[in-house]
Design a protein that fits this description.
With 491 residues, the protein is α+β, with helices and mostly antiparallel strands. The chain has one domain (35-491). It has helices at 2-20, 37-41, 110-118, 157-176, 246-257, 307-325, 352-359, 396-400, 421-424, 474-489, and strands at 31-34, 47-54, 79-80, 85-92, 97-103, 128-133, 179-180, 182-188, 197-198, 209-215, 222-229, 242-243, 259-261, 264-267, 273-278, 285-286, 293-295, 300-302, 338-348, 372-382, 385-389, 393-394, 429-433, 442-443. It is globular.
Length: 491
């Protein structure tokens, strides 16, 4: 009898493992190569559309607590401070059409992105759909790591369904609002001082702000914008139990409606709908409680992690962006060819914690093969603006340069991920869309990988990062894939 029970138990465990690591999207593979030659040969007016759908969780059910992602387990939401959104932008050059959805979310797995794509209507004619997360740490758990305990997922299946459906609806709203546009691009050099810190050596940032601005050809009115910056939206920090969009929410609202204080307008907005995308936030780029943020409109400093500090951070960004959007002399164009190169890749899963989590019912994502994750990279160009879509939190040194052969690293090797991604990318303005179409965690240079003593730079204890990475080979594979897409995209 004991043998039969043991065999039954083994069978149950085997069945559980097989079910857990099944392919959620069997046969799915993406390979897009739109070279823009048709648009170059026959230029047509650009069109753009924006849409947005609210994705607030339901806090009215005492028996269904909403677990907030980021920091620690069992952090339940008690209040909605400000709304969460799925914000979409669709750009059309008359030949090709690309769509972007940015979610106020901690992260969205690739299988969920595939689910969004399956709900996009064929007559929307979207050649490539990108779904990004802002990586907000005051939003519901969509990954499973922040439930009531380390052994229980915090994902509410109904809320995940709401986000998937809302993403598709936002994209549809953007398609329906397509209209002629002129486009201008802005790169705003920004020092990190007073905004964020790099929590891990070497100290490298992706602190510059990049903006794609869409205006009406008839009257110059703002239709909307895409804003890229690199910082963890966790300004209110670990004790916060309010649902909030953090600084991306303040940024979007103030660009549209202006900077206001107690009913007074301190700075006029430009109208339109604005979409925020995060950049190279690995490392860890964040506004710690030790960072003092100056509100440029109140002339007041905020250090303690509060909503006022978050608002001040948003105002810091807005004070830099608004003058650019209001500049009527900025060069614009109504012609810009779209080029799209995207493909599926596989990454080896070397993190045993990430391997165990699905068995325990925490992380619910498929595996293309045993210990292999299906994910995706892309290079999109719109005229002289290029966008590299990265499926996680990439370290800024991989993007901008500065990778070190770090003393104490587990691999005593020269930097592998060279040259820097941004130097390879075409065009004048180069966006990094982090957490694009997936969230695989930190993407760490192999020469800076450190799990075993001696620790990096003679530190007394290990560094943070590796515990939330799929493994040391991921960065090199992603870097090579982007490099190949860049080569493929060249005329």
């Amino acid at each position: 009898m004991t043998g039969i029970v043991l065999l039954a138990l083994i069978a149950i465990i085997a069945a559980r493992v097989l079910y857990t690591f099944r392919d959620r999207s069997p046969g799915y593979s993406l390979a897009i190569a739109i070279d823009g030659k048709a648009a170059d040969a026959s230029p047509r007016p650009l069109r753009v559309g924006f849409g947005r759908v609210k994705i607030n969780p339901d806090l009215s059910k005492p028996n269904e607590p909403v677990y907030i992602a980021g920091f620690d387990q069992n952090r339940t939401a008690t209040n909605i401070h400000d709304d969460l959104w799925a914000v979409a932008c669709v750009i059309d050059d008359g030949h090709s059409r690309v769509g972007v959805v940015s979610l106020d979310a901690i992260g969205f797995f690739h299988d969920d992105v595939i689910s969004v794509r399956k709900r996009l209507a064929a007559d929307w004619k979207i050649d490539y759909a990108i779904v990004c997360s802002t990586h907000n740490h005051s939003t519901p758990d969509l990954m499973g790591l922040w439930g009531p305990s380390v052994l229980r997922s915090g994902v509410n299946a109904g809320y995940r369904e709401l986000v998937i459906q809302s993403s598709a609806e936002a994209m549809g709203a953007a398609v329906k609002s397509l209209q002629p546009t002129r486009i201008s691009s802005h790169e705003i050099l920004t020092k990190p001082d007073g905004l964020l810190t790099d929590s891990r050596k070497p100290e490298v940032y992706d602190a510059d702000i990049r903006v794609l601005h869409f205006t009406s050809p008839s009257n110059g009115a703002t239709i909307g914008s895409i804003v890229g910056w690199a910082n963890h939206p966790e300004t209110v920090w670990s004790e916060n139990r309010d649902i909030t969009a953090d600084f991306p929410g303040y940024l979007r609202d103030m660009l549209e409606n202006g900077v206001r204080q107690n009913g007074a307008i301190l700075d006029a907005g430009v109208g339109g709908i604005h979409l925020f995308v995060n950049g190279a936030v690995g490392g860890l780029m964040t506004t710690k409680p030790s960072v003092k943020v100056h509100d440029p409109y109140l002339q007041q400093d905020f250090k303690e992690p509060t909503h006022d500090k978050t608002r001040a951070l948003g105002r810091q960004l807005v004070s830099r962006i608004l003058p650019r959007l209001e500049d009527t002399n900025a060069p614009t164009t109504d012609r810009a060819s779209i080029r799209i190169h995207a493909r599926t890749i596989e990454l080896p899963l070397e993190n045993d914690g990430f391997l165990l989590a699905p068995v325990l019912g925490l992380i619910d994502r498929g595996h293309s093969r045993w210990r292999q994750l299906r994910t995706e990279v892309a290079l999109v160009s719109i005229g002289d603006v290029s966008i590299a879509c990265i499926p996680g939190e990439i370290y800024p040194e991989i993007v901008n340069g500065g990778i070190e052969r770090a003393p104490g690293g587990d691999f005593d090797i020269d930097p592998v991920e060279t040259p820097p991604i941004r130097t390879m990318m075409p065009g004048k303005l180069k966006f990094i869309f982090g957490l694009a179409n997936d969230e695989i965690g930190y993407i760490i240079p192999k020469s800076e990988w450190d799990e075993k003593p001696p620790y990096l730079y003679n530190a007394k204890k290990g560094v943070y990062g590796e515990v939330n990475s799929v493994g040391p080979e991921a960065a090199g594979i992603i870097h090579r894939a982007i490099k190949e897409l860049v080569a493929q995209a060249k005329p």
